[in-house]
Amino acid sequence: MPSKLDTHASQLSALGHPVRLKILRFVVQAGSEGAPAGNIQGHVDLPASTLSHHLKRLVDAGILRSRGEGTFHFYAADYTSLRALTDYLWEDFCRECSTVLEVRAVS
After folding, report:
1. Cα 82 to Cα 87: distance, rounded to the nearest angstrom
2. What's the CA gap between 83 and 89, in Å, rounded?
3. Residues 60-102: pLDDT tens digits?
4. What is the spatial distance between Cα 12 and Cα 96, in angstroms, rounded to a whole number?
5. What's the predicted TM-score (pTM) here?
């Protein structure tokens, strides 16, 4: 099982591409049910094979979940995973941030 550091590094790597960020934003805005691959493709204007590569990267990193309904494939954000990533960044990289923010708010 990968360590927390390895998991989050993989997620950040997957998010480190403008197209994948655009895909994630679109899928998150689609709500908890997600969006069908065809709608995502129309939004990012990529060939199906290229889109498939980007979606696979996001699914493999645990950022998106996929499900099939008949001949359609839907992609939804894994909010638990995204929250764990943001919590990790906040807690591990910004231990002093809350203190700094509190001091600034009082000043």
Report:
1. 9
2. 10
3. 999 999 999 999 999 999 999 999 999 888 877 776 665 555 5
4. 22
5. 0.84
